[in-house]
């Protein structure tokens, strides 16, 4: 058997050096009781802050979900409104075409009838002509003389065939 000295063993050398530490060095390397208490308070404070942040995050997530729901509802409403507007536009276009057809039929029917102080009906004076006609029929008592009665009767006969 060979004998070895402890001085040649690395573990023994480290253990020996470790044993040579002074008391102050040992106190500096180990936690003091006051350090442990301070760390405990810091940990409690950090845990409270983490808890507060988690709660805040939960509230924010709930608010976000609610906001996403509201946005989704608004998007659906907007889509419905757009579809309704499209339908209304199509109806307006159809009504415009119908009105245009009625205007042309009225112009053709009244082309030979002259209202007092007016040119024959045309697209250019159509609105003024219709306003004059409306006034004549609204205030028929002002147009009681025989000439105007004949004019009103001619107008009635001229527009009789227009389909509305």
From TrEMBL:
Nucleus is among the record's keywords: yes
Regions crossing the membrane: none
GO molecular function: DNA-binding transcription factor activity, RNA polymerase II-specific; RNA polymerase II cis-regulatory region sequence-specific DNA binding
UniProt feature coiled coil, ranges: 36-98
Keyword annotations from UniProtKB, A to Z: Coiled coil, Nucleus
Record's subcellular location: Nucleus
Keyword Glycosyltransferase among UniProt keywords: no
Signal peptide: none
GO cellular-component term (any): nucleus
Top-level division of the source organism's lineage: Eukaryota
Entry-linked PANTHER family: MYELIN TRANSCRIPTION FACTOR 1, MYELIN TRANSCRIPTION FACTOR 1-RELATED
Full protein name: MYT1 factor
Source species: Geococcyx californianus (Greater roadrunner)
């Amino acid at each position: 058997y060979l004998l070895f000295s402890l001085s040649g063993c690395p573990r023994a050398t480290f253990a020996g050096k470790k044993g040579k530490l002074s008391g102050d060095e040992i106190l500096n390397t180990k936690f003091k009781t006051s350090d442990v208490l301070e760390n405990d308070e810091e940990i409690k404070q950090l845990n409270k802050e983490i808890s507060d942040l988690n709660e805040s995050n939960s509230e924010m997530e709930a608010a976000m979900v609610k906001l996403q729901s509201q946005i989704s509802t608004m998007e659906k409403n907007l889509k419905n409104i757009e579809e309704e507007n499209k339908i209304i536009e199509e109806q307006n276009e159809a009504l415009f075409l119908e009105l245009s057809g009625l205007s042309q039929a009225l112009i053709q029917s009244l082309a030979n009838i002259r209202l007092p102080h007016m040119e024959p009906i045309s697209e250019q004076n159509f609105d003024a002509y219709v306003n004059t006609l409306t006034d004549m029929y609204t205030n028929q008592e002002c147009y009681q003389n025989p000439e105007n009665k004949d004019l009103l009767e001619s107008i009635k006969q001229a527009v009789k065939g227009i389909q509305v």
